[in-house]
Q: What sequence folds into this?
């Protein structure tokens, strides 16, 4: 029985971390779909959001106020960055755009660092977790961290809202059209600048929510916290088929599941209750899935990315892309 | 080859040697350190230029090769006695190796160790390259960044070899000005000759237009792969030199900040230009040094990185080709007669 | 209505248009013919602002649109049905049509109705993804989508390209019908027979220039046109 609980807990884990990756990946995918730009600064937007939330909470604002403040702040910064750093190089070779996003990321990181030093704070600060996001929910014998449940629910709700937006509104429709064929979208009279700005705004807003949840999960924040999540979000987007919003969502959950598997499987020989599998199997599990493998999780994840790029460059959901990878 | 064409580079090397000798004699620690830095970054940027600037395959994973070179050479040169206590879990085949011999004052072991480490890294690069070079543009960039992450994860977890997240210290300090600059000149020479060779032209051709290059019969893979492997070799050498200069380091050094620093130098100098790389290194290091002093004076830490990133961004927006683009400042024409 | 005066367009060093001037009057159907690579599509792309002319002027309805953004040009009443159809393959037929009217508010159903009258086949395919339509249906969708903005001037680029003869007849019947309804059109067409058939006036392009112009009936008897394009 306890194995079932373990499984359920791991499943919730997978779905909640998957929600965070999906929230991040969607922003990357929307911008990539339209501009062919891999926006690496996306992770740093998430970091900025976490800092905005931390300071709003430090100031004693309730979560209901801190949350919108954080989202609006991040969206504004995202729009500003699009305007000054990305719009001038539109149409440049894609590597130039990628490098530009690295530079933007560095500026956000160091800007935050500068600001922290200025106000005499250490680089890494503890994140003041709001009550709603701390503690556990108990469902009978199963306990699940509230954070995981909230991540899961907010991820699903936001992604459903997003899908309604891109299918039911003219602006959303325009975004999908621009992602399919930029010139044809222009010929419809779609204002591309407006569409791109919307993609950045929505992406930043979703990254902000993800940032808050990541920060609560880590318990602390620092200016470099966006690096790993943006890489993961990129992997998620590639797994799902880069440039497609649905693909990013599927990829996010697939990656979350993969990560939880890679964390849970090493050392599984030690935690299986006695008598569940034969001693020989248990010994084999101990030998081939030792707990020391868990440290290599990210390496395996990146190997998965590289395999994906090579063998299914258009992702799980992918159809043929417009350009070769 | 026209002997007059050798005069320019020769004069430059002599001038450099005189400068290094003067620095050595004067014992100015700060300036010596700066010149070691310039030499090291020169090797890194030139190698990256070979991979990124000439072939257009943008690698962000080179610092991973540097890390492997650094750890490789450090492990290989560790004296036997220290090795047992310092890395007790090394496998037997490696535990007995100690390339710490010095022949007539010349640290032959160090040379061997860096060559072996760099050779192994070149092999790794060949394998990685066979897989990754098939991608193009920004996808190769992110996939190679993935390689960097993989290397980092391995360094952190392979305790028996690297001591994991703990600092790897006790590295014998072999590296000095002469070592660094000898390798830097060697790198410069190789990269220069490659650029001027038919192979180099093939590389540049397929960078400009992959389809057109294929159409006139230039194979895309071999030049890309060759460039990638050679550049990984020299990058690993830079890692070895770094390890034996700084003498203690941990996996955190070899990550994104360093990658970004090297890429900044490359892009500001001009991708595809050898002399541009030299300019980029000197420009960024000089600027970084000035900004560091400004930081110390104003206590505004973080400003130097921000300003460098801003300059980088401005270069990409307003002068995408960097300072030199693909042009060269030709030393070999300095004393040569005007071309007909 | 549309006045193009001496425009020059180059793509990455290659001169595609070398001083093109032409005129389309209200209610006219003007055809632009010429061999592949003569610059016909480039001319249309320059009009709709996808490409920039380095000199010269494009004036539409009294507005100088030489440097205007494409979305503004569309808002002024020019609709461009591009070469190769360029429909949004992942979007449904209805979504494709709705996007055609993105610059206008209201009266959506009325415009949809108009398109369904011209192309009854589209009505049966509304929920289907555009990419799953046959070539002819895609062309209908592309024209229908271009009409959704209620254009005063329609730029039609190679509407018959790659279509079966019966479908070509159908498309040209629609072009005639649109003309009868008073839509001004600039038509680029490889099929010179059909183009001369429907057009009021014709321009012939060669290597980025206009080499010949005149009423369709007159050009049909021009020996050079006969030799080069009508194969007689």
A:
């Amino acid at each position: 029985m306890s194995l079932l609980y373990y499984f359920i807990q791991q499943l919730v884990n997978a779905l909640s971390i998957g929600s965070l990756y999906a929230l991040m990946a969607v922003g990357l995918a929307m911008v990539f779909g339209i501009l062919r730009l891999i926006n690496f600064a996306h992770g740093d937007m998430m970091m900025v959001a976490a800092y905005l939330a931390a300071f709003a909470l430090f100031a004693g604002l309730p979560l209901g106020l801190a949350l919108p403040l954080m989202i609006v702040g991040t969206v504004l910064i995202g729009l500003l960055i699009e305007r000054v750093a990305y719009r001038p190089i539109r149409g440049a070779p894609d590597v130039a755009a990628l490098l530009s996003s690295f530079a933007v990321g560095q500026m956000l990181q160091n800007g935050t660092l500068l600001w922290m030093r200025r106000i005499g704070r250490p680089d890494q600060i503890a994140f003041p977790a709001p009550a709603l996001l701390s503690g556990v929910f108990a469902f009978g014998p199963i306990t699940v961290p509230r954070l995981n449940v909230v991540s899961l629910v907010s991820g699903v709700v936001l992604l459903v809202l997003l899908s309604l937006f891109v299918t039911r509104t003219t602006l959303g429709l325009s975004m999908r059209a621009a992602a399919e064929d930029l010139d044809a979208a222009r010929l419809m009279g779609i204002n591309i600048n407006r569409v791109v700005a919307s993609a950045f705004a929505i992406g930043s807003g979703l990254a902000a929510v993800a940032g808050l949840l990541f920060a609560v999960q880590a318990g602390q924040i620092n200016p470099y916290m966006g690096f790993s999540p943006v890489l993961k979000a990129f992997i998620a987007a590639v797994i799902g088929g880069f440039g497609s919003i649905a693909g990013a969502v599927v990829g996010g959950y697939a990656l979350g599941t993969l990560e939880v598997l890679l964390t849970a499987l090493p050392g599984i020989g030690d935690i299986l209750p006695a008598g569940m599998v034969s001693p020989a199997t248990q010994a084999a599990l101990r030998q081939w899935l030792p707990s020391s493998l868990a440290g290599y999780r990210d390496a395996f994840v990146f190997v998965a990315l590289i395999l994906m790029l090579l063998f299914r460059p258009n992702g799980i959901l992918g159809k043929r892309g417009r350009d070769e990878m | 080859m026209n002997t007059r064409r050798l005069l320019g580079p020769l004069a430059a090397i002599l001038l450099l040697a005189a400068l290094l000798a003067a620095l050595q004699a004067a014992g100015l620690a700060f300036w010596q350190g700066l010149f070691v830095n310039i030499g090291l970054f020169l090797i890194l940027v030139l190698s990256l230029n070979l991979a990124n600037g000439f072939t257009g395959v943008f690698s962000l994973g080179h610092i991973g090769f540097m890390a492997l070179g650094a750890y490789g050479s450090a492990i290989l040169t560790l004296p036997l006695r220290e090795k047992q206590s310092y890395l007790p879990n090394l496998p037997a085949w490696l535990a007995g190796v100690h390339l710490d011999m010095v022949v007539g004052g010349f640290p032959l072991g160090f040379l061997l160790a860096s060559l072996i480490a760099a050779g192994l890294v070149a092999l790794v690069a060949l394998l990685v390259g066979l897989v990754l070079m098939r991608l193009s543009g920004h996808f190769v960039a992110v996939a190679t960044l993935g390689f960097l992450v993989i290397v980092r994860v391995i360094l952190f977890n392979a305790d028996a070899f690297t001591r994991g997240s703990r600092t790897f210290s006790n590295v014998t300090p072999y590296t000095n000005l002469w070592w660094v600059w000898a390798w830097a000149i060697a790198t410069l020479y190789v990269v220069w000759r490659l650029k001027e060779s038919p192979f180099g032209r093939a590389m540049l051709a397929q960078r400009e237009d992959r389809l057109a290059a294929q159409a006139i019969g230039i194979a895309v893979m071999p030049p890309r792969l060759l460039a990638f492997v050679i550049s990984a070799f020299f990058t690993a050498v830079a890692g070895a030199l770094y390890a034996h200069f700084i003498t203690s380091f941990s996996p955190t050094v070899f990550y994104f900040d360093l990658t970004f620093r090297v890429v900044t130098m490359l892009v500001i100098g001009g991708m595809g230009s050898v002399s541009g790389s030299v300019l980029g290194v000197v420009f960024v290091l000089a600027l970084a040094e000035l900004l560091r002093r400004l930081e110390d004076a104003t206590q505004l830490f973080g400003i130097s990185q921000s300003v460098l990133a801003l300059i980088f961004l401005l270069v990409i927006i307003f002068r995408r080709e960097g300072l030199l683009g693909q042009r060269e400042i030709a030393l070999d024409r300095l004393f040569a007669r005007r071309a007909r | 209505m549309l006045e193009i005066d001496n425009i020059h367009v180059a793509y990455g060093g290659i001169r595609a248009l070398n001083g093109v001037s032409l005129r389309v009057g209200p209610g006219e159907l003007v055809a632009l013919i010429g061999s592949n690579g003569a610059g016909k599509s480039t001319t249309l792309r320059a009009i709709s602002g996808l490409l920039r002319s380095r000199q010269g002027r494009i004036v539409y309805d009294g507005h100088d649109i030489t440097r205007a953004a494409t979305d503004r040009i569309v808002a002024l009443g020019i609709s461009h049905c591009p070469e190769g159809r360029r429909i949004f393959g992942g979007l449904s037929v209805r979504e494709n049509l709705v996007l055609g009217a993105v610059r206008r508010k209201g009266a959506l159903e009325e415009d949809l109705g108009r398109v369904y009258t011209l192309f009854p086949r589209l009505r049966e395919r509304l929920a289907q993804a555009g990419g799953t339509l046959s070539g002819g249906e895609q062309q209908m969708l592309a024209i229908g989508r271009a009409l959704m903005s209620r254009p005063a001037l329609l730029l039609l680029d190679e509407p018959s390209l790659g279509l079966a003869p019966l479908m070509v007849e159908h498309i040209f019947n629609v072009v005639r019908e649109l003309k009868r309804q008073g839509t001004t059109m600039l038509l680029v067409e490889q099929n010179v027979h059909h183009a001369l058939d429907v057009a009021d006036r014709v321009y012939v392009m060669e290597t980025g220039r206009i080499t010949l112009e005149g009423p369709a009936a007159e050009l049909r008897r021009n020996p050079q046109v006969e030799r080069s394009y009508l194969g007689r």
About this structure: DSSP finds 15 helices and no strands in chain B. Chain B touches chain A at residues 56, 58, 131-132, 134-139, 141-143, 145-147, 149-150, 153-154, 156-157, 256, 260, 263, 267, 299-303, 305-306, 308-310, 312-313, 316-317, 320 (CB under 8 Å).
